[in-house]
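Input (Putative epoxide hydrolase EphB):
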Amino acid sequence: MRPFGTIKQIDAGVSMSAMRGWPSNGPVAICCTAGPYDIHAFVDVAPDPGKGRYRVIIPYLRGYGTTHFLSSETPRQWRARPAMAVDIIALMDKLDIKKAVVAGFDWGARTADIIAALWPDAAARWCRSAGYLISSQAAGSAPLPPSAELQWWYQFYFATERGRAGYEKYTHDFAKLIWKLASPQWKFDDATFDRSAAALDNKDHVAITIHNYRWRLGLAKGEAKYEELEKKLAAAPLISVPTITMEGDANGAPHPDPSIYAKKFSGRHDYRLITGGVGHNLPREAPQAFAKAVIDADGA
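Output:
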C-alpha cells in the first residue's frame, strides 16, 4: 500500500476541507470518495501514464476525517446532489486548478456526474464507477419494486429517530455491514476497515449523514442557496465530457443497468465491467483497473 502525502487543510468557503494525495507537477486527478468509506479507498490508485506522475488529490467528504465547518451557524447538512460538487469546485479554485480528471465511486461518482454536467470546463475528462446518478428529490419519491426497496433499508431506518440514535451508537458496525453487503467477495481485514472507519468519528458525521438520507425522502429541508443548482439537476442534463464508467461484477450495492443511462452521455462514453469478484469499492478492490481508467479518460 502506498503512503499518502501529508494531509492538508484548505479553506473551501463553507468548510475547511481536508485532503491527501501524491504531489506532482503533472496533470491533476481528483478522486471523490463515498460513504461509509474514506480517502483510503484510493490509497493504491497511483496513475502514471508515462508522461509524469499525476497530481492526485483526494478530499474528505463533509463530516469525514478532519473536515470542519468554518462557522458554527452553518447547518450541518449535506444536500445529496450539489453540495459536494460545490465543495470540489471551491477546492479547485483555492488551489488554482483549471482542469482535472475527476474520478469517484458511490457518492463520489454522483459528484463527478454533477461536476461534468454543470462545470464541464473544470472536468476536462472523467471516469467513475456506477452510471448516471443525477436525479431529483421528486424522482426519488417514486416507489420501487419491493426487491429494490429492500436494498435501501437503511434509508428508511435513518428516517426515524430510532435510526438516528442507532447510527450514532453503532456507526462503525453499520459501516462494516455496508462494506460486506456492497462487496460480498472482498475479504478485507480489520486493519483495512479500522483505517477508514476512523474518518467516521468526525463530530458532524452523524448529523450530515442522517440529513442526507432524510432529504432524499423529502423529510428534511435543504439550504436555499442550492435551489438553482437543484433545478438544473432535476432536468437530468446530458453529459458531454468524455467519460468512462465502470462496474464490479460482484457489486452488491444498488446500481442501475448500463443500458438505462447510456443515452445520458452525449460525448464519448466507454463502459467497463471489471471481473473477478469486484464489489462496490472498486478503487480499493481493483486499483489497477481504476488507475487505467483515469489514464485512458485523460487521453480520450
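The mean pLDDT is 85.
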